[in-house]
Amino acid sequence: MTEPYDLITMGRIGVDIYPLQTGVPLAQVETFGKFLGGSATNVAVAAARLGRRSAVVSRTGRDPFGDYIHQALRDFGVDDRWVSAVGDHPTPVTFCEIFPPDDFPLYFYRRPKAPDLVIHPGELDMEAIAAARIFWITGTGLCEEPSRGATLAALEARDRRGTTVFDLDWRPMFWGGEGGASGDGGASGAAAMAAARPYYEAALKYATVAVGNVDEAEVATGLRDPKACAQALLDMGVELAVVKQGPKGVLAVHRDGRTAEVPPTPVEVVNGLGAGDAFGGSLCHGLLSGWELEPMMRYANAAGAIVASRLACSSAMPTADEVEAFLADR
Questions:
Q1: Rounded to the nearest 10 degrees, how much is the dihedral formed by the CA atoms of 313, 37, 101, 301?
Q2: Alpha helices, DSSP H only, in 4-135?
Q3: Does the pTM of the predicted model rise above 0.85?
């Protein structure tokens, strides 16, 4: 076996088709750019940009977009050996509208089924997953079989070795719901959360770190107060709970009693969609570096802010020099 990876992520992969014009409805957009996408994939790219050896476990269609994904991963320095093709389903694409500073509607084309949900337990390199310094899974990976079973099997095989991060990653439309969490999604949001919660609870038994915004934390805990969410996540077994609070910044609470609450880094937002993934990759970088909570949260916030100030997601992920220069200016 080769040297363990710094980070292996497992989950969504696809192609982002983003408008090259901002403030324009999708129906009126005339030019688009093509980018590597998918939250788990973007996290691996973000970590690779920071010098970490990362890989993705996922699947594409057997089509030109699948070929593009492999080339893009290699260009970003992310190992693609565990990204395989599915013959029956096309590589998913995602469109968005860009209305800065805080409105970025997403349109997922993942039917009849996304290949990244056709990951089977028997295909997984359990030895590599168990050995990775960080293993990262997402809520979306739990929404359908066989991906759900594969995700839980990988967690069980890893058995809390090293650092295992559960990105709470809430997309209610993947669970049969509409809108957002219960605070603004109505009955459909609440029903989708109820369907998801048992699987979130099962994954949290194997996670050492949970990260998500308040809506995502509510899926796992049934609570919306950030501090209460963090404590509930600790009670469910994680060692570190990271709750992103939007304009209020980020809260990190460790089982040993350490806490950090860091305000956001002001920036002129162009597209906020990749900020959370940049935060995730930087969080992994900080965990691997053994940083204390507050500098780790400040660094991750800065990386997210940099990406929010740019148009794309994967190709916008900053290098360590860019993050350090950004922080030095603040």
A1: -50
A2: 39-49, 64-75, 126-131
A3: yes
Return the closest-CA partner of residue 41 out of 1, 2, 68: 68
Cα–Cα distance measured from residue 115 to residue 13, given in angstroms and rounded to the nearest whole number: 9
Which amino acid, one-letter code, is at 57?
A: V
**CA 315 to CA 25: how far, in whole Å?**
23
pLDDT for 102-117, tens place per residue? 899 999 999 899 999 9
**Tokens at 184, concatenated:** 């603004």
Q: What distance in Å separates the CA atoms of residue 116 and residue 95, rounded to the nearest whole number?
A: 18
For CA atoms 129, 284, 273, 67, the dihedral sign is negative
- C-alpha triplet 142, 146, 148: angle, nearest 5°: 20
| pLDDT 10s digits, 247-262 | 899 999 999 999 999 9
The candidate with the shortest Cα–Cα distance to 320, out of 274, 285, 270, 284, is 285
User: How far does CA 240 lie from the centroid of its chain?
Assistant: 17
Helix/strand/coil for 174:
helix
What DSSP letter does each residue of 205-241 carry, written as one string? TT-SEEEEEHHHHHHHHS--SHHHHHHHHHHTT-SEE
